[in-house]
Design goal:
This protein is α/β, with parallel strands linked by helices and 297 residues long. It has helices at 39-53, 64-73, 119-126, 163-171, 187-196, 232-237, 255-265, 268-276, 284-294; strands at residues 9-14, 17-22, 30-34, 57-60, 78-81, 94-103, 105-109, 117-118, 152-156, 182-184, 200-204, 214-216, 219-220, 243-251, 280-281. The strands form four sheets. A six-stranded mixed β-sheet has the order 4-3-5-14-6-15, with helices on both faces. It has a five-stranded mixed β-sheet with strand order 10-9-11-7-12. α1 (39-53) crosses α7 (255-265).
């Protein structure tokens, strides 16, 4: 395979993997920072974009908070950032586009007759120091044989991904989870527990592909509201409430220099990489609209 490289990009073969890294020569013209949850695959995809476009590029996906600090201080040109709701970059200095969504899905066994759940119900099942605590399916409105059955609340291990942080921030106002909440350590572990215990009510970033006989519950903000499933359209509109945006943020003064990178992160190729990182890309129509606006069309 022949690769045409810019002077500021070199290829390193390590352990059978190809890494595109900044090489010797002039300082990088475009510095990209952002979420460490995007992983090595997305870094490699960005460097591959730099090779195709012939642009010098440096990538440091060390976290959204340090990335945002670098962006504000002028030490970076573009960020891929997940920031708390309401903490929006200054629109006079930065353009900010929703690129994809972290979401928390609620999973139960397909045989469970529960068809929807509200934020208050989830708080009562999972939250510590909340006004009301639920521990049986009857508390969630189920009757008959399900009424007296205990709920087994299940969440990801602490520090693994953003799903617990998003849930605690949006539903529990940053209060902790109950100590009896069970924990899973991997997608395979989650699938095993879902298949083995029909009483489970689980929080996750996505439904495990290998979990049979499970379903996602639509979520409503309040009991009187409609409940919505975590589709790309419902995440984009905000109808599904358990979500947090991954945004592409760039300095308006650097718009021309970062345009090839922004064009790439809005592409279908980048979306496929984001999906493998358990994010939901913005709908195709939204990404295309952003791309056309950036091109001035």
């Amino acid at each position: 395979m022949n690769l045409k490289l810019s002077r500021a990009v070199r290829v390193v073969l390590l352990g059978g993997l190809i890494f595109f890294l900044p090489g010797p020569g002039p300082a990088a013209d475009v510095r990209v920072v952002g979420s460490d949850l995007l992983g090595l695959e997305f870094s490699k995809a960005l460097y591959a974009c730099a090779v195709r476009e012939g642009i010098p590029l440096a990538v440091a996906l060390d976290g959204s908070r340090p990335g945002y600090d670098q962006l504000k201080s002028g030490r970076a040109d573009l960020g891929l950032l997940t920031l708390p709701a309401g903490e929006d970059p200054d629109p006079a200095l930065f353009a900010s586009l929703p690129l994809a969504w972290h979401r928390v899905v609620v999973i139960v066994a397909a045989a469970t007759p529960l068809e929807r759940v509200t934020l208050a119900q989830l708080a009562a099942v999972f939250g510590a120091d909340v006004p009301v605590s639920y521990n049986r399916w009857g508390d969630l409105g189920l009757r008959g044989e399900w009424e007296g059955r205990p709920v087994t609340p299940l969440a990801v291990a602490q520090g693994a991904g953003l799903s617990e942080q998003i849930f605690r921030h949006l539903v529990l106002q940053d209060r902790p989870l109950k100590s009896p909440v069970a924990r899973y350590t991997s997608v395979a572990d989650l699938a095993f527990r879902l298949e083995g215990d029909r009483r489970v009510l689980a929080l996750a970033a996505a439904l495990p592909p290998q979990a049979a006989g499970q379903k996602l519950l639509p979520v409503a903000v309040r009991a009187e509201d409609a409940a919505f499933s975590p589709t790309p359209e419902n995440l984009q509109s905000g109808d599904y409430p358990l979500r947090l945006a991954l945004r592409v943020v760039f300095r308006r003064a650097a718009a021309l220099r970062v345009l090839p990178v922004v064009r790439f992160v809005l592409s279908d190729d980048a979306s496929r990489v984001l999906e493998r990182a358990e994010l939901v890309p913005a709908p195709v129509s939204v990404r295309r609209q952003h791309a056309l606006a950036l091109e001035g069309k």
